[in-house]
Amino acid sequence: MTGSPGIPDCTKTGTPVPGPFANPEIRPDSLPRAATVAWQPLHPRYAKRLQAGALIRIGVLAAVVAAAHVTVLIAGFETLSRIAVWPLRILWALCVLGAVWAVVKPVIVVPRCGYAVREKDILYRSGVLWQSVRVVPFNRVQHTKTDSRLLDRRFGLANLTVFPAGAGSQKIPGLGTETAENLLAHVSERIEAEKPQTADDSC
Amino acid sequence: MLNRSDSGGWQRTSPVAIAIFVGRSAKSGYDRYGMWSQAVAAIGVTAFLLRNPQYTALILTAVLIIFLLVGGLRYWFFRFRIEEDRILIRQGVLNRTAVDLPFERIQGINVNRGPLERILGLVTVVIDTSGSLSAEGQLPAVSPGIAERLITRVAEHQGLAPDVPATPDTGPDEVPAEGLEGKARQLAGAGLRAPEERGEVLHRLANRELLKLGLAKPGASLFYLAALILVGRQVDVVVDGVVGTFESVSGAIAGPGVVGAATAVTALVLAFAVLLLATRVGSAIVRYHDFTLWREGRSYRSQSGLATRREVAVGVHKVQQIRVNQSVVYRWFGRYRLSAPTIGSSLDADEDDDDGADDAEVLRVPWADGALVERVRSGILRGEDERLAILPEDRAFRRVSRLYIRAAALRFIFVHVPLVVVALFFLAHFVSRSWRGGDLSSTDLLGRYVAIWADVSLIWVALSLLLAVPVGWLRWRARAYMHTDDGIASRFGLLGRTVEACLFRKAQGVTVKRSPLQRRHGLATLEVETACGDVTVPYIEHAAACRLRDYIIYRAESSQRRWH
Known about the structure:
The structure holds two protein chains of two kinds. By secondary structure, chain A is an alpha+beta fold. Chain A is built from four helices and seven strands, in the order βααββββαββα. In chain A, the strands form two sheets. In chain A, strands 1-2-3-4 form a four-stranded antiparallel β-sheet, with no helix packed on it. In chain A, strands 5-6-7 form a three-stranded antiparallel β-sheet. In chain A, a hairpin with a 4-residue loop joins strand 3 (121-126) and strand 4 (131-137). Chain A is elongated, with a radius of gyration of 26 Å. Chain A starts with 39 loop residues before the first strand and ends in a 9-residue tail after the last helix. By secondary structure, chain B is α+β, with helices and mostly antiparallel strands. Chain B has 16 helices and 20 strands. Chain B has helices at residues 17-51, 56-77, 115-120, 144-160, 179-189, 195-198, 207-216, 220-232, 235-254, 258-288, 328-333, 370-380, 403-433, 442-478, 516-520, 542-558; strands at residues 79-82, 86-91, 97-102, 106-112, 123-129, 138-142, 200-204, 292-296, 299-304, 310-315, 322-326, 336-340, 363-368, 398-399, 480-483, 487-492, 497-503, 509-514, 523-530, 533-541. In chain B, helix 1 (17-51) packs antiparallel against helix 2 and helix 13 packs antiparallel against helix 14 (442-478). The radius of gyration of chain B is 29 Å and the shape is globular. Chains A and B meet through strand 4 of A and strand 18 and helix 16 of B. Strand 4 of chain A pairs antiparallel with strand 18 (509-514) of chain B.
């Protein structure tokens, strides 16, 4: 009960610990709920971009495997070609499986990711089996940025990242370039607006 | 401001600072290039000298001259000047650095003394500002007179300056420092005086306690052992030494009998244990000799160390999280380890590494009883949360769902078993390498190596399958959480206990996670992120987690107070 006067959130009730929180001034039901926000989907092209990226990586791997295969065949060492048969088959199988996974995974993952911007915070949800929803309040964000790498630009996409102090940054990938720009402007504005005032700081 | 010249011109510190500068250069070189390159260079030079001993004197002289030159140059270019309202520091040979510190910004003046300085009666002045200036705001090896002068100057200035808040660091519950005299006392207190004169002393570690602390220090022994093996890299030599000692000892005691061998083994093990304990107690004494914790205005300060006295100051409002740790040995003694990190300081690094001079921002109490922990907690959370549980055995803690046992057991199997099997692989490798069979061929060696690995791994897999459920159960028993209207505390551990607590309004973000198992049973994991780590509550009701998340976010967003 020693909270300084004039700071509204210092007020307390005398409820015994711990119990579900009860704070007469704000009823739990009236708190804004993160569970009921309207999630914005990531850009549909983001799945294609992920597929392209993964396929390129698989392609590089396949090229290496092919080179190894050709070398073994041309060199024509008896023992070597006999030993190398199974490893090469396994590597080729891995390439094929990898290619299938590269095509399928983004189709599953991307629709289940989403973001939402509220007046005072930004939300991001992700995960298929292990799902998570993260909320980052604007008044704790230090700065924000957008970036788009070569492949992102090919698909007309950009990523937005917000950086809270000390805690891990939150990246929202696969936004349309225009959406990302608008979001960046909006988020920067919100960060400025929500900056905690230090004037009435007494502690 | 109008009449600066009368305040004295540029000064240098005493030449003793050369030694300090040399040490600092060596440390920065070490930090930059790392231990390994240093070791490689040292070994290379040594090898060269062994081959060409005629150059020894030359190289030694060259090294000495380089050191003296570096230290001397840095000493020569280090100048400071105390003015009416500010202190100016100029330093650097190639990269010149200029620091102007207005007296208003100085929050305290700490005086540290290294061993050399203690002998010569000099001090190092560390100027405490609200920003991070620890590297530049230092005057190494100056006479105590200069420290006194700076302290009185700053005190006068802060007492007289009208635009400075009267007592910025003093809470409403503290004895206010009255006027100029009080201000002077408060600041000067931050100088050369004993902690008793500077504030309310909360804790002083007696030597007897230090002994116990040394015994309780976690984990260090395994590290030493690994370092010994790795650095020595000569397993053969170690094995030879152990076997040789063993043989000679057993021969000396009771001849080749079974009893003699047993005695010898016991003696060896005991000697090793005593050696390890002595190292731990020694390092505890070096680091925490005469540990003193006191409260000064709105900040906690601690001072400790045998050779170098280290002082830590942490403002109460800067603390982001409180962590109380109690390992099994600590529990035996009924003591706790408390740390209160500020923004950016990581909790992972809270093992006591001795070169931790950089993170002066974490308040650590290595050995505290329950009353002290409660006192520090209520001091840090004063006026915000009087009921947040921080001691592991607090009755307010509530268990999480029993399904956590299953999750923890599965994690134990899937994470620890493969790791240990790989570790065993390398261990078997070393053992077989050092196998002294004499006439063993390399195929035999390889066979033996694989056989050892396979056997031990199998035993380990079986053992961990048996251990998984008990481990899961222990982890579940340790897992608990509690929250009040203003903060949340989470407890975890295996045999020991750790409690992490933070205030809602200091949250940087909140995450709710659900695994497939959790979804099936309507559970979730709540993670409250702070600026220096997470407070995690796994396996609670999903609805409760969402409610808590919404409330925490509301508290963080509606808070108008500065959080760091």
